[in-house]
Amino acid sequence: MTNEIRHHLTDAILMAYAAGSLNEAFSLMVATHVSLCDECRARLESYDALGGALLDGIDADAQAPVAEDSLAATLARIAASDAGETAAMRPAPAPRGSVLPAPLRDYVGGDLEAIRWRPVGMGVKQAILKTGPGATARLLFIPAGTAMPDHGHHGTEMTMVLQGAFSDEDDHFARGDVEIADEEMQHTPVADISEDCICLAVTDASLRFTSLLPRLAQPFLRI
Amino acid sequence: MTEPSPARALWIGHIDRIREDKDQQAFAELFAYFAPRVKGFLMKSGADSAQAEECMQEVMATIWQKAHLFDPSRASVATWIFTVARNRRIDTLRRQRRPEPEDLPWGPEAEPDQEDVIVLQQESDLLRQALADLPEAQRDLVERAYFGEMSHREIADATGLPLGTIKSRIRLALERLRHAMNGSQ
Ligand SMILES: [Zn+2]
Ligand SMILES: [Zn+2]
């Protein structure tokens, strides 16, 4: 992927992902962005390196003595499962021309054609992805030139562009870019006129819509 | 507190021997060093002794089985074992799914560059040393982020660890890889 990504993940979220303490929905955001972004892939792997250095340097009194037959038991496990099935640790790259990177394809069951959109009004559609508790991940479809309802946030909202582009009061976001909105932020994202915009959005709390209509719609949107 | 470095440089050779020759002696040495660390790591993150033993054995078995996937131009052996242990912890102990970034499309000539390997390993060693040299309180903060389930917000800025050089090295390795791939397609 050679397009220029200008808006990246934060150190805090990359470190939390490397440490393994991020919930599933935000982990999906990290995995999706890193699939497209070598910059963040390198940053992430440097946080993995920090985990490795910690493991390596763990104090003698924090090491745990292993069971007496531990090595033999492990070799027996290896022998028992040595049927040559060694799945890769990471999903294979998405086929050329895919809009969705491999981690998202896993959730959707294919590329764009496999997404089961539900209309939420004004031409906007969404598909909520099935993830564990703590945060919600959804795909959003915003028709070219359309504005999302003006809203604020109760928690953190991360939005990554997969197709098309959008702008809000502050900046412009194209494929691979991540916008991170927090409690202080109030914005109205507008999709570029040239192409329908598809985004991955992850939120850890509901959004606050300022106009009445979207507020009524909120229970149905589950945002 | 820290073992002499010569032993460290050998771990890559150990992985090679496991991959090429299914060398049980090499595995036994790797196991003697890493198994108590992995088990300690799992217990620090909340597993009891029996769970941690079981989970650690799975981790070490995975290291044997996936030895061919280890890329020494992008990670030290300790880092690789850490990532396997971390993923096991999420999968087995927390019963959560962890979406992973897609793999890089390995070209036929994806042999790691020896220069990359050497420098990455040296920088991993520098990072380990820098971590050991951190004031107790800061090191504790980092440990809690990785071993416990503490907040990470301040940690990245607060510690000033030399992650930048490792990042540049990995970035360079990725670029070479992509370059090799484009040349081969
Ligand atoms: Zn990035
Ligand atoms: Zn928003």
Describe it.
Chain B: Pfam families: Sigma70_r2, Sigma70_r4_2. The complex is a heterodimer of chains A (223) and B (185). Chain A has helices spanning 11-19, 24-36, 38-56, 70-80, 102-108, 212-221, and strands at residues 118-121, 124-129, 136-142, 151-153, 157-163, 165-167, 172-174, 178-181, 186-187, 190-191, 197-203, 207-209. By secondary structure, chain A is α+β, with helices and mostly antiparallel strands. Chain A has a single domain (1-223), classed as Jelly Rolls, CATH 2.60.120.10. In chain A, strands 1-2-3-11-5-8 form a 6-stranded antiparallel sheet, with helices on both faces. In chain A, strands 9-4-12 form a 3-stranded antiparallel sheet. Chain A is elongated, with a radius of gyration of 21 Å. Chain B has 185 residues and is an all-alpha fold. Chain B has a single domain, classed as RNA polymerase sigma factor, region 2, helix turn helix motif (Rna Polymerase Sigma Factor, Chain: A), CATH 1.10.1740. Chain B has 8 helices and no strands. Chain B has helices spanning 5-21, 24-44, 49-65, 77-93, 114-133, 136-147, 155-159, 163-184. Chain B starts with a helix and ends with a helix. Mean pLDDT of chain B is 80; it is low at 1-7 and 149-154. Chains A and B meet through helix 1, helix 2, helix 3, helix 4 and helix 5 of A and helix 2, helix 3, helix 4, helix 5 and helix 6 of B. The complex binds zinc ion (2 copies). Residues 151, 153, 157, 181, 187 of chain A line the site of one zinc ion (ZN).
